[in-house]
Amino acid sequence: MIETFTHPYPWQTIDHTTQTTGAAILKGALPPTVLHSLNAEIDPYLETSNLGLPATGSRDYDKFLGHNTIRMHGLIEKFPSSSDIIGDTKIVDWANRTMGPLAGEVLLNAGELIEIRPGEPRQQAHRDSDSWPIPLNPHPFIVNAIYALDDFTEENGATWIAPDSWRWPKEQRAETSDYVRAVMKRGDAIIFRGDLIHRGGANDSDKPRRALSISYCAGWLRTVENTFMNHSLANIRGQSEQIKALLGFGAYDGQELLQPSHCYI
Ligand SMILES: O=C(O)CCC(=O)C(=O)O
Ligand SMILES: [Fe+2]
Question: What are the residue ranges spanned by the domains of the chain?
């Protein structure tokens, strides 16, 4: 079971849980109004745009991303309601505390819409920290928040999570019995260390499973999403200082959290 927390969130306990077993579910992480407006922005976009099906040039990476899975970045530009989620102070503060000893300043690693469509098999098990060739560490250098925009069920692809697996040797694989499933109501979120083994589930239902995956990483890492190129300057200029800093529009001093005055646009 993944420890589950309700409002008002007891952050000291949540910090301890995510630091140790590695994951926690936050009930009602998204206010209903935000959930509603975000889905209302995504629906027409998916109907009218080129669906973001993978064509990376690597057959293995495309398989990892999923041939029946919509993935989109540049969320702030595409879906205005996503900026409140990406810049949500309580989650960004949690990311800072969790990675603090390693991270200095924290960046948005990737803001991703992940819509697993019917027929998608379960994803390859991985750690999000595998993006970089860095040994596992007592403190993570990436953390993730996956927000359920649809109910997550075992049938429609609720995320598989292997608690404690960040402590394992890097090459140790997770057995089926090592996993728990992030069954959640829409609006809930699972927050976890990015060095925890996990994977998206198979969607054996007849409806999509929609989520936002918002990951934050240490400021000294090369982010998976190229946030500079994925957002227009005109849009970024209108965003909060917190968002500008998270997207990397600031000087990196290696120690302190970026103060708003340091942002250079
Ligand atoms: O969609 C999910 O539940 C998890 C996806 C994931 O872990 C990933 O793509 O890195
Ligand atoms: Fe992942």
Answer: 4-262
Residues near ligand 1 (Cβ within 6 A): 114, 123, 128, 146, 159, 198-200, 211, 213
Supply the CATH classification number for the domain 4-262: 2.60.120.620
CA of 158, closest atom in ligand 1: 3
Nearest to 23 by CA among 43, 1, 45, 38: 1
Does residue 265 register a pLDDT over 70?
no
Q: Which ligand is nearest to the CA of 196?
A: 2
Choice between 39 and 50, residue whose per-residue pLDDT is larger: 39
Strand pairing category for 4-5 and 23-26? parallel
Instruction: Please write the tens of the pLDDT for every residue from 20-35.
Output: 999 999 999 999 999 9
Q: Which residues surround ligand 2, an ion (CB under 5 A)?
A: 128
